Amino acid sequence: MPAAEPVAAAPRRWYRWRMRRRSTLLLAGTLPLSLARPLARPALAQPAARDTLTIGITQFPSTFHPNIEAMVAKSYVLGFCHRPLTAYDADWKLVPMSCEALPTLENGLAVREEAPGGKPGLRLTYRLREGLRWGDGTPVSSADLRFAWEAGRDSATGFGGAEFYRSAHALDVVDARTVTLHLDKVTFDFASMGDFVPLPAHIERARWEADRHGYRSRSAYETETANPGLWNGPFRVAEVQPGAGVTLERNPEWRGPEPAFRRIRIRTVENTAALEAQLLAGQVDMVAGELGLPLDQTLALQRRTGERFRFAFRSGLAYEHIDCNLDTPILADRRVRQALLHAADRARINERLFGGKQTIAQTSVNPLDGVFDEGVRRYPYDPARAAALLEEAGWRPGPDGLRRNAAGETLSLSLMTTAGNRTREAVQQVLQGMWRQVGVETRIRNEPPRVFFSETMSKRRFAGLAQYAWLSAPEGVPRSTLHSDEIPRAERNWSGQNYTGFRNAEMDALLEALPIELDRDRRTALWHRLQAIYAEELPALPLWFYADAHIWPQWLEGVRPTGHLNLSTLWAEQWRGR
Amino acid sequence: MARLIAARLAQMAVLLALLSFAAYMLIGLMPGDPVDLAIMADPRLTAADAARLRALHGLDQPLLARYGAWALAVLHGEFGFSRLYARPAAAVLWPALGSTLVLLAASLSLAILVGVGLGALAALRPRLAPFVEALALLGQAVPTFWLGMLLIILFAVDLGWLPAGGEADAPGLLAALRFLALPVATLAIANLAAYARHSAAALETALREPWIRSARARGASEEQVLWRHAAPNAAVPVLTIAALDAGALVSGALVTETVFARPGMGKLIYDAVMGNDYNLALLALLLTAAVTVLSGLAADLAQRALDPRLRDA
Amino acid sequence: MAFGAGRREGRRPSLPGSGAGPRPEPDAESPALSPRDATDAPIPADAPPRPARRPGNPRLLAGLLLLGGLAAGAALADAVAGLLGHDAFAPDLFSRFEPPSAAHPLGTDELGRDILLRLLYGARVSLAVGLATALAASVVGTLAGVVAAWRGGLVDALVMRLADALLALPALPLLVVLAAIDPARLGLPARGEGLGTAGADILRITLILALFGWVGVARLSRAAALSVLARDHIRAARALGATEARVLRRHVLPNILAPVAVATALAVGGAVLAESVLSFLGLGIQPPAPSWGNMLANAQELVFAAPLSALWPGLAILLTVTGCNLVADGLRRR
């Protein structure tokens, strides 16, 4: 529809035109028919020279400071522009990023020492890579790490997770590129520096010292996001369009492999149907799987568009499961939990709804994780076994097909999840049907995510089953979800995430032993035992690990999805256009 | 006139004060505080972190005390920082308001043009009146996001003529117009019904007035009668509705903004409310309420200017 | 001048024959509870007589037929389910997105459920929201308006100031806030306790929508009541010793019923639309209970893959709103 139709000049003619148009649009209903046409053809021609890559994501990174508020969209953008000391790569191995080598006890960069108070501690040495510079030419130096550590240690600064800074009790500057860090504990993943990243002291220190409480909103990351001196990755933030997107330019000071694109545009489209439309209209080149379209929507797109895009499905560490509140009398019986899992045909749900792309979970440990136990107990779909287990637990079929116990109570459970998540709601309704088949009634009672998480789950106010996902890191120890000390209680100000109320002395011991076991083989044995207990006790019913759906143009190569919180953009200099 | 304006401004001040209190309390009634939201996003935060962050953000204070502190700061012209965007609330607000005002101006103009055109058509050609009415009805009855999505599919995906959404990616009027076309059309279609109805009714009434008959008797052409004599009469209701629509659209285009991925006020308020961003949500709500009141006032003043009968009142 | 008085006086006489100012109808997307068209209904007493159109009032008839059809569909949902032999609530993963067939006249949705059946069950929820909201808004609005007109003075000033204030509020953002607050903190029944989940949702949405919806009706009925109360025969009746209750019951109420009925009819459609907007934002009726709003919101995500499943609920909403507008129009022209 030409927008510049000369309307005012010729009112009469225009009425008629308008009427005709509207009647075709709305009355004759031609629109839905036009949808049936194949969409395999690009709507807009691609520019010949590919110096720009436009990426669609579904969330806007509202803050840009690396240490304030975790948010996937921010991690995605920072991956292009700001490099951490260490990261887990696409093979889930810890690799050095802006440091030269990972400290190990063997290479002498990690040394056991006694921490203040007599606890066993560690001294770690990190040496920054040669030639690493901020976008304004200032070298990235020990002073930047020192500043980041000082800011993190000060509780007034308002960094998110402070656990690392509590443990890192001292940081010494050895030379311009080398620091030693003193930790007051010895854990197997000590070399991983996580969110401890260099911050540009030459810009940020003065701001921080002027007003530590207000640093969060005075930081140049928020006030001058496009300042090149804030960024040390292959790209730097050039422009922020609040709520709409971020434009990145190549960082001229980057000394690593030359990235293929001069400019990266990241566009935020929260509505996934609108994002799909922008992809089909050629306005975005790719959809980032980390913040992309739901799996079923992507599968439908793949069926319709044929060869136009490349699709990659990468299973990750988002563990979808159903928590059982173990204080509910019905669910306190392990046999009932096992029966529920036997009666849920997860393979069929995965096949029909998700094209078989999700990885069925046996426990909270992903099969791709090195410590996964192949021999862990599995629960194939087996309604007969489920029925037998329920009989054994005293639940017998009543006249209406629902099971009842000796006291005449019906086997009825509430099943909750986050309202507004279409995929979850669909799965939930399918599970409801499957459990009905074995005589178990489930009453669906969903809540908006913020009620669900910050009231119902965190205060354990759910009476039956609750479906949601946990995110974790490779070989992340599930202490906060399985240790009996982590059961949220009013006395402890509702801290902890053991929402199921799981108590198991052996599990507690394992969770305490695991982090401090540095020997890989012995640790693997502990992990296997943990999975065995989990699969036997089923504090939560494992469903699957989500597969992220990445959509790329045919001409883009080199993107390696990771499936965890260190996103694919940390290796963006390897992305290539064809 | 001056008394009217003064009264209306006083009314606005009272209203804004009440609204700020009510909105602050309502947001406080929403489950979960900003720190809960941060914990949802980052499971690594511990209970100690939560307590530390709560104290840092002043969330350990009672709601009333927080409101008092906020109101005091506002009276000193301090609107505070947006929690979500970590910059001054006003700095976050202005670009969104700009985007919304462009969308609003364009879609209201289009709705008025098309609506009044349809209304005039119905008044002049009674045979066509039922069709006009049917169109107006349909426009009013279609859910906006459905309409928007259909327009995107047809014009952006199938035909490839217009962008599917977002803000203009290149400078220039043409680019801006291309990006505006579909959201403007969506909003205009949804809003034009009232203009069609009211202008039709007003024109019909006006055309029966004695002075129109006398104008005809003097030999004025139909065109002249319509545009010179009847139209000013019909302008009154149209202006009134336009002023009210303008007030409502400042905050009410949330769905259109979502479907077309435009960062406007509706979206901003929604995100601020959902993200427990008190400073931003309050400032935006107050601003939109002020716009609503002021546009109502503007409508009244315009009516007085247009309709001599009201001037004496 | 009193707070807000100028506004009412200034605006009202401007609309042809109207008794009340138009209600802002934000962006048809945002809930139009008391659409402005209700308020410019000519009030019989002071409107110039319209030329008689066609006899028989085809608008009213068409609107009633349309709404009656939808209501009958909702009532017959169980019977249709029996006839087709499906369960509208049981997912069937082997028949997702089926095209229309004899077994599934409108095809199946993303979980393989019959769309026709879900539309019919959805009609129950959506029409319940629409009717309950419209009735609540009308009852409260009429009471407030009549009492304000009858008592006058302080009561009138208070009611109308409140109405003015509500009109000046940004409606959609506040609806969002209201829909998101935790009912338990207000002492209301939390989701899913006592009432069924769907019942609690309907109640919640009705309350929120009616909170804004009563204003238009109140202004309208106040204006109508004022004009009735000023008439000679009321004075005569009072002089003859009629009690105030009798005056209100016998003279005022019957005379304002017509405009209120028009407003109510329009409000039904407005509430159905409003529910779809709330569903789009994830704050509407929660599954598994179907409503047209949540069916539409669900389908829009898969609009490219299964365009037809978005078409039907959209059409149902459109027909309902059209039916309501036709009824309102018909009532107005009687």
From TrEMBL, chain B:
Residues 97-298 form the ABC transmembrane type-1 domain. Its main location: membrane. It comes from the Bacteria. The chain crosses the membrane at residues 12-30, 101-123, 135-157, 177-196, 234-260, 280-302. Keywords: Cell membrane, Membrane, Transmembrane, Transmembrane helix, Transport. It is a multi-pass membrane protein. GO terms for cellular component: plasma membrane. Belongs to the binding-protein-dependent transport system permease family. This is ABC transporter permease.
TrEMBL record, chain C:
The chain crosses the membrane at residues 60-84, 127-150, 162-181, 201-221, 256-282, 302-328. Belongs to the binding-protein-dependent transport system permease family. It comes from the Bacteria. Its main location: membrane. It is found in: Cell membrane. Keywords: Cell membrane, Membrane, Peptide transport, Protein transport, Transmembrane, Transmembrane helix, Transport. One of its GO terms (biological process) is transmembrane transport. Coiled coil: none annotated. The keyword Cell membrane applies. One of its GO terms (cellular component) is plasma membrane. Residues 1-12 have a biased composition (Basic and acidic residues). This is ABC transporter permease. Pfam families: BPD_transp_1. PROSITE patterns: ABC_TM1. Residues 123-328 form the ABC transmembrane type-1 domain. Residues 1-55 are annotated as: Disordered. It is a multi-pass membrane protein. It comes from Roseomonas acroporae.
